[in-house]
Amino acid sequence: QLQLVESGGGLVQPGGSLRLSCAASGWTLDYYGVGWFRQAPGKEREGILCISRRGVVTTYASSVKGRFTSSRDNAKNTVYLQMNSLKPEDTAVYYCAAAPRDYSFCSSYPHEYDIWGQGTQVTVSS
């Protein structure tokens, strides 16, 4: 079974930074576009950005533009979400998801992704 393993969540003060990792075990992420989503209590899952197989990042959520970005390290079979200048409203469970598509694929729609991580909690609070 193909799985994504997420790590790096936790409690951080407003203005701080976190880096989430999304690792594939036993298969390669090279052939997959990867999306990042988050879900706050009582809210729908939100697609915030994605990184294509080419490494091009597309940001969908205006609230994170200029603060969040993603990168991929194919040698480590891992994709990262770098989150800077964190705000309390960024508090949510964060998910990565992968889709085996062409080189330019990116999407903010959850149904277009096939493999999901387990989610990691990010809490921004003083």
Produce a short descriptive summary:
The protein is mainly β. The protein has strands spanning 4-7, 10-12, 18-24, 33-39, 46-51, 57-59, 68-73, 78-83, 92-99, 115-116, 120-124.
Provide tags for this entry.
single chain, mainly beta, 11 strands, 126 residues
Write the layout of secondary structure elements.
Layout: E1 4-7, E2 10-12, E3 18-24, E4 33-39, E5 46-51, E6 57-59, E7 68-73, E8 78-83, E9 92-99, E10 115-116, E11 120-124
Parallel strand pairs: 2-11
Antiparallel strand pairs: 1-3, 3-8, 4-5, 4-9, 5-6, 7-8, 9-10, 9-11
Overview of this protein structure:
With 126 residues, the protein is mainly beta. 0% of the residues lie in helices and 45% in strands. The protein has strands at residues 4-7, 10-12, 18-24, 33-39, 46-51, 57-59, 68-73, 78-83, 92-99, 115-116, 120-124. The strands form 2 sheets. Strands 2, 4, 5, 6, 9, 10 and 11 form a 7-stranded mixed beta sheet that branches. The chain has a 4-stranded antiparallel beta sheet with strand order 1-3-8-7, with no helix packed on it. Strand 4 and strand 5 (46-51) form a beta hairpin. The N and C termini lie far apart (39 Å). The model has no long low-confidence stretch (mean pLDDT 96).
